[in-house]
# Entry
Amino acid sequence: MEIGARAGTDAVVETGTIPAGETVGVLTGNGPADTAGGRSTKEILERAGYRVQLVELNTIQGDVGAINQESAAAVGTFRAAGVKNVLMLLNFTNQAGFYDAAGTQFAVTVIDISPSNCTPFGASRTPPAAMGTTCIAAWDNSNTAQGGPRPDTEFEAECRAHFDKVFASEFPTRSSPGVPSGQVITLPDGTQLSSDYAWMDCTMTNVMEQSLRGAGTNPTRESAYRAALALGEMPIANASDGKGTYTPDKTYLADFVHPLKLTAATVDTPKNAQGTYNGCPAPVNCWVPTSDKWFAIEGQ
# Structure
């Protein structure tokens, strides 16, 4: 989480979207990783000349309802501090209280530090007030900053073909880019769009296979781990500009993050001339890249 927080905050600073000298709100949890991420974000912002109002929610206790009550209360704290821009380092399940209380009074940037946060699945479960939120994430979403569909890379095409073969009996159609995991969307004309393939599952299965191949004839956890860190550049499906790297001193795969914007779409949204639904690859809320630029994660 700390690496994701640093990479996302570095990108926010580099893009210059928050006016210099402002007080920026940072909303995070109080678990060890959350605390490290939030304080790294605070450190980077202060070094760049911003003032910071940091709020750490009690996420360790695990009560989603209570966490959302606290995230709602953070709105008053930020308002009192004169905050206009908020950096959110929370799982999407813990954000609803904040958005319900804040409405659209803050410009919010989600720093993606949790699985599914800035994916079609996460986008499909966000409150209406979150529309227009920015996310800095390693994830991609099969669409382009110009509003059109992004074709699969060679590796992504292999992932999709395997998924469609394995789950042929589970879904009515082949996988459709942008459809949240496990879902089937039925359009007004009766057309059905089935769940997109599992991006990260395919990516990590490939990593594990290559690691086991390099771990010797009697692999152990240690030999497989060492083999994984010796893999070097590896393909990533729908993330990090399609590529990542493992090295002995880098235990995470992604090399890049980029900004995306939460965009509204429903089954009633018409497909446009570019072949997307208000920029989304499927007729459901999505994250649309705001530029084609990818930002290197610190140390890359």
